[in-house]
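Workshop exercise sheet. Pairs work together: one partner reads the sequence aloud, the other fills in the structure field after running the prediction. Swap roles for the next sheet.
Pair: D.N. / O.F.
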Amino acid sequence: MEKKTTTETMPESCHDDFHQAAYLLKEASSWALFTHQKIDGDALGSATALFEAGRLMGKQVRWCGPDPLPPAYFFLPHTSSYLCSAECSFDDPEELYIFLDSANEDRSVRGLRARAPGIKVLNLDHHEDNTRFGTWNCVDASSSSTAEVVLNVMKAGGWEITPLMAECLYVGIISDTGGFVFTNTTSRTHRHAAELLDLGVCLARLDAFLRQTRTVEGMRLWGLAFERIQTWGDRGDFALSWLSQDDFNLSGAVRSDTEGLIGQLMLIGSVRFVAILYENEGAPDGVKASFRSKEGCVDAALVARSLGGGGHPRAAGASLSLPLPLAIETVRETVERLYAEWAASH
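Structure field:
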């Protein structure tokens, strides 16, 4: 496991990242879990599975993040224990601070850069552009999801994986693989999913909670985004839409109602790259942009990084401190420029 300078040593049995992470978790009496902005199913599934594991091991566990939880995931355990907070103090040397699914320290709560000396930070993630900001970094870019990373840690530690923990991890995996259709899905992913099914995951129960809980307000919001779809390119390769703060206010929808929206634009046959922008008036990063790309097109992560964000080759995002009209223009120009550079080399 890649780590920064520390006086703590690992036993010889901890011969890989997963075993070392399991050892750190076992040795700590208190865990603080942190998830990222605009929390998704992978971060939620990973956090709730770890929370449940910690509770069963007799740990003191708390869980924080910068954005509210999407109501569709309230069926998962310990969501009522979640604290929505933009900032946290990192000053307890007895606590293990665990960051889940966060490629860099700016993706989660503020305060980590000002951490006290001797603070222990465990970074569990699967993003290839992870900045290794932890004291210990268990980052496996070959995993489909952070939930897969957490599953490997649990198996390395010989932990009992209960049906409830299995359900949480399965939610994480299906979220980040798009139901096993994204290119990050591997045969190993399917084997892990099969293990979780064998532990008691009920697919009908998950489908009822995750796909059959849309609200009328959320559907109206999606309609507004569909009405605005712009497509361009030689074959209609690119699609873009946006939602303003007024759209949320008038429809009565909430931010979590946008989950899954971008995937609908990816269903357009000709489209290879999609961008959706969400205005958030009053926030310092006034517009959040989400990107998706298909095989045979410029990476979504490349576009996101050029705008100060990050993510995966096929799914990424960024925040822009710009008015919405200028953000739309900037995203279009960036996509066109980077696509032209990509196409010239392919």
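Discussion prompt: The mean pLDDT is 93. What would you look at next?
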